[in-house]
Specification:
It is built from 36 helices and 29 strands. The protein is an alpha/beta fold. Residues 1-27 form the signal peptide. It is a single-pass membrane protein.
């Protein structure tokens, strides 16, 4: 046992205490509460987006375990009984179903396998705990230690150092010798403070020359609350708040004693560092509104867990004021001397952030607060509250259900999220995090959850005696992160500065266009003549018997059309996609009853667009998921809807009417919008396949009709639009997930495109058939389920011929990306709703920014989707993104939509220029909100429309043909003139030469004119001089005397 401080030392401590008290009186609390008062970032600022960057050089990557959870060998080689051995063996706990840690992961015997697992991960550190009852079966560290235990830990440390793995050793991870619980009542008794100091001194002395990082204890909050307050953990005492406060007080004092012992006796020679692992949750104020009151509540919530232990050690040496106020007389107190030697007893901040604290945090929320797994904010709080200490995330991770086994897909994304939050805390907030330990290395005994949940990176089958370590997919992912030292930049972060082609469709997409006969201008349609006060009542009344001739109603009478189209034109877009209302035009489903007024309204819309030099893309059938008719005319729905072939024939008849009445003004038709979504309403698998079958036939008939009877005159392009979200394998390390993602795409897109286009590999013979992979899968599935045949219908030879090539362009509605995994078919999933046809599950990556409606913003997914379609179907047909957008609750400054627009179009540019995709259009969804701000480019309140900020951005992008920050000359100026005039086209292409030649020509002409001017001027001057001379001579002759000549006289 080490000697306590001498009298001179105590005198020095007293002097230091006076200084401390003076400083403490002058100090204010930490600045942690400022973390909630910072402006809330939108989900698209750099500190909210996933950060593609690497950690600082030398970052301490690691993994960890605890002794009781993994060692097993509970009574091997002289080990003593721990409180957890007793707790799991006794009737004190009836919630474990007699599960124990007797063997657990058997790390005591399989420790070399653990080291090998660390080598697989390529980590630089290993955090493990020493078993106090294994080293000292009777707990007394002043006696002889268990030699077998000392040898075991020495071998482990030596092996780690040999592998260049830094040991991070925890002295106490909850396995107190049972003898101390029996003798003293455990941590309720302050006698354990001295015993722990002695135990720590032994460990420092025995292993300290080889250990540079020490952790005195792990998450004392859970020991105090779960072990002695609620009894959920060992020793299972339900002592309530008073016991928890007492135990916490003794744990803090025990830690401080151990640190002081190391600092005084071992640090000079061993030069290591000592800390304590503290756990916490994170809390956000009600609805994210940071007022003084809500921030104070959040601060109190964190102080009640993390601050309870951190404030005495990292702060002022005493408990937070909020705790002392709340618990008053129940709260233990530190003596002035204790405050002095408790304060600053940690060389770095060691943090535990996992499910245990987050679960318990739910009990501490009030007034609408939310518990969130926001590790970045918690690290920022620690920096502000405790003066920017160096931080080790000593426990980071989540859990999976035991049934998940090795394919722990969800855990991958939680790991990705936690580690990226640490990276952002370093890069954006300046937090000094120097290491991260993924918890835990191997599956083990998970305390009160037994073996029902798993947290290991390596899977262990606890029914097998050899306890083989098998890497889970999280181990593969963590290995990749460690190897890359984070998340290095990839190709998606490289910007392309280029343009889309000049005939590119810049569009805005809407759903079914509402037919608004009112407001209506009666100026030329009312035959009456009116007069004021005709009847003496002061009102305007028609004059009886007087009528005027009127003209028929004109398009200008529909006041809503012009205002609506002016709104669209202000976006700068060239194309407007809208849908007709089939049930309005043909209420009975057939041409026996045609709503000519509705047709005239649509015709007016089209003629007004033409006047504005804008192009329409018109959808014939826009399915609605709303009852009762799903956008179909009532009689057709009543007769079976898309389950009936009669609807196919009715659609062909309807398409003929559209071509006949509106085809003059329409160059781009969509027959059916998102048939792959309308089939989702059918609960029966066979019905879904039959509905998809008939929808395809209806489109093909409409396409063939146009080709046969209208194309020669109208020259329009006809397609159908598919909902086309990208599918990414949920688990990149599992082939089954890759197969599932491909199957998802085939059922979503291939089901409709393959019969029309075939594939590049199958050539012509593949057209008119469903995807081969889809047919094989459904046949095998039918066999497994004992069905007589596949539910997939077959096309007749005539239908196949009708389908082949019945597509003028590929229209895709793309919004987001989904993570896809195969349906596991567990008992739970079988009891839920029937599985979709593709038999896949979808989930979201929590690191993707998302909208208020949960739509993930994944720009690169658009490029992946376009590339997949291009590779499968070739680039002969153009591809047009006929709808793409995101909901944004902002009424004006829609920053999320602006980010969406910039980033998605940047990926579209890459698809066009880098991947060679024949992309010819992009339509933004949609023009205007109806009520609250959502997808619209314009808000609409009280019949007043107001442009959001994204409108100006879209205009700028359109003006530069796709690049919002490209200052180069607009490439598509004078495009129409170029097409009409080949010479103009050549001149436009060779502008520099033309300009230079023009300048040279003008200069030459000016020089020639100057020469001519000079020559003429000189000639005029000579002529003028000659004239003057002649006039002078004449004058002189006129002034001379007259001479008369007479004939001679003879």
């Amino acid at each position: 046992m080490l000697n306590h401080p001498s009298r001179p030392t105590r005198l020095l401590n007293s002097l230091l205490l006076l200084v401390f008290l003076w400083n403490w009186a002058a100090c204010t609390s930490g600045d942690g509460r400022n973390i909630w008062q910072r402006p809330k970032s939108s989900p698209i600022t750099k500190d909210q987006l996933f950060l593609q960057d690497t950690f600082p050089p030398g970052f301490l990557w690691g993994s960890g375990t605890s002794a009781f959870q993994t060692e097993g060998a509970w009574n091997q080689d002289g080990k003593g009984i721990s409180i957890w051995d007793h707790f799991t063996h006794s009737s004190v706990s009836d919630r474990f179903q007699r599960e124990t840690g007797d063997v657990a992961s058997d790390s005591y015997n399989c420790w070399e396998d653990d080291v090998e697992a660390l080598g697989y991960l390529a980590v630089r550190s290993y955090s493990f705990s020493l078993s106090w009852p294994r080293l000292f079966p009777d707990g007394n560290a002043t006696g002889e230690p268990n030699a077998a235990a000392v040898d075991h830990y020495s071998r482990l440390i030596e092996k780690l150092l040999e592998k260049k793995i830094e040991p991070i050793v925890t002295l106490y991870h909850w396995d107190l010798p049972q003898v101390f619980q029996d003798q003293y009542g455990g941590w309720k008794n302050d006698t354990l403070v001295e015993h722990f100091e002695q135990y720590a001194a032994f460990c420092f002395h025995t292993f300290g020359s080889r250990v540079k990082y020490w952790l005195t204890m792990h998450n004392p909050y859970l020991v105090a609350v779960q072990g002695y307050g609620t009894g959920v953990h060992a020793p299972g005492e339900i002592g309530g708040l008073y016991s928890s406060l007492t135990v916490a007080h003794n744990l803090i004092r025990a830690h401080a004693k151990a640190w002081q012992t190391y600092n005084t006796h071992f640090r000079p020679t061993q030069k290591g560092k000592v800390s304590i692992v503290l756990g916490s949750h994170w809390v956000e104020p009600h609805r994210g509104k940071s007022t003084a009151a809500t921030v104070a509540l959040c601060q109190q919530s964190i102080e009640a867990v993390l601050g309870w232990f951190a404030e005495p050690i990292f702060g002022n040496g005493d408990y937070p004021v909020s705790l002392k106020t709340k618990h008053a007389a129940l709260m233990p107190t530190f003596t002035p001397e204790e405050k002095l030697w408790v304060q600053r007893t940690a060389d770095f901040f060691a943090l535990s952030f996992g499910p245990d604290n987050i679960r318990l945090g739910q009990n501490l929320v009030h007034n609408g607060q939310r518990i969130t797994p926001d590790l970045q904010s918690l690290l920022g709080w620690i920096k502000l509250e405790y003066g920017n200490p160096r931080v080790l995330v000593a426990e980071g991770g989540w859990f999976s259900d035991a049934s998940v086994g090795r394919e722990d897909t969800v855990a991958i994304y939680l790991m990705k999220s936690f580690i990226n939050q640490v990276l952002k805390a370093i890069k954006f907030d300046g937090v000094q995090v120097f290491g991260y330990s993924a918890w835990s290395l191997v599956d083990g005994f998970e305390w009160n959850y037994g073996y029902g949940i798993r947290r290991g990176l390596f899977y262990i089958d606890f029914n097998q005696p050899n306890r083989t370590r098998i890497p889970k997919t999280t181990a593969q992912y963590y290995k990749q992160i460690v190897t890359d030292n984070g998340f290095p930049s990839n190709e998606t972060s490289i910007e392309v500065k280029a343009h889309f082609p000049c005939k590119f469709h810049w569009g805005v997409a809407d759903s079914t266009l509402q037919v608004r006969f009112h407001p209506f201008s009666p100026q030329f349609s009312d035959s009456h003549v009116y007069s004021w006060n005709l009847t003496g009542d002061g009102s305007l009344r028609p004059i009886p018997g007087v009528k005027l001739n009127t003209r028929p109603a004109q398009c200008t009478d529909y006041l809503a059309i012009r205002s609506h189209l002016r709104l669209f034109a202000s976006t700068g877009a060239s194309h407007y996609r809208f849908a007709l209302n089939w049930s309005l035009i043909l209420p009975e489903g057939g041409r026996s009853s045609v709503n000519t007024e509705a047709l005239r309204y649509y015709r007016c819309v089209l003629t007004e667009l033409k006047k504005l030099n804008l192009q329409p893309m018109v959808i014939m059938y826009y399915p609605s998921h709303r009852a009762p008719y799903l956008g179909l005319p009532g009689p057709l729905h009543a007769s079976g809807g898309w389950m009936s072939y009669s609807t196919v024939e009715a659609f062909q008849e309807y398409a003929a009417l559209c071509y006949q009445e509106l085809g003059t003004w329409v160059q781009n038709w969509i027959t059916i919008n998102e048939p792959n979504r309308i089939i989702d309403i059918y609960s029966n698998v066979t019905e879904r396949h039959q509905a998809a079958h008939n929808l395809l036939l209806a489109h093909a008939k409409a396409w063939r009709l146009h080709e046969r009877e209208y194309f020669a005159e109208q020259r329009a392009l006809v397609s159908l639009a598919l909902h086309a979200d990208w599918a990414k394998p949920g688990n990149p390390f599992l082939e089954s997930h890759t197969v599932a993602a491909e199957r998802f795409l085939l059922f979503e897109l291939g089901r409709f495109l393959d019969p029309l286009l075939g594939t590049r590999n199958e050539k012509k013979k593949g057209k008119g058939k469903y995807p081969h992979e889809m047919r094989v899968y459904l046949e095998e599935r039918a066999r497994v389920y004992g069905l007589p045949k596949s539910p997939l219908p077959r096309f007749t030879n005539n239908e196949r011929q009708e389908l082949k090539g019945a597509l003028s362009f590929i229209a895709l509605n793309h919004f987001t990306t989904r993570l896809v995994s195969p349906n596991p078919h567990t008992q739970d999933t079988l009891q839920k709703k029937p599985a979709p046809d593709h038999d896949c599950l979808t989930l979201l990556d929590p690191t993707w920014p998302s909208s208020s409606q949960g739509q993930a913003v994944v720009p690169w997914g658009l490029r992946k989707m376009l590339k997949w379609v291009n590779q499968r179907y070739g680039r002969t047909l153009p591809i047009i993104v006929t709808a793409s957008g995101i909901d944004d609750q902002a009424s004006v400054e829609d920053n999320l939509r602006q980010y969406y627009l910039r980033s998605y179009l940047q990926e579209a540019l890459k698809a066009y220029h880098v991947d060679g995709v024949n992309l010819q259009g992009f339509y933004m969804w949609k023009l205007q909100d109806r009520h609250a701000p959502e997808f619209g480019l314009f808000t609409s309140t009280q019949d007043q429309s107001k442009a959001k900020a994204s409108v100006a951005l879209y205009r700028e992008i359109i003006a530069h043909s796709g690049s919002y920050n490209n200052s180069s000359t607009q490439p598509c100026r004078f495009t129409e003139q170029q097409e009409k005039c080949p010479t103009c086209k050549w001149m436009f292409k060779n502008k520099p030469m033309v300009v230079f030649g023009g300048c040279l020509l003008i200069t030459s002409a000016m020089l020639a004119a100057l020469v001519v001017f000079v020559v003429i001027n000189k000639r005029n001057q000579r002529h003028h001089t000659g004239m003057k001379k002649r006039r002078g001579n004449q004058r002189r002759r006129n002034k001379a005397p007259a001479n008369y000549l007479c004939p001679a006289v003879r």
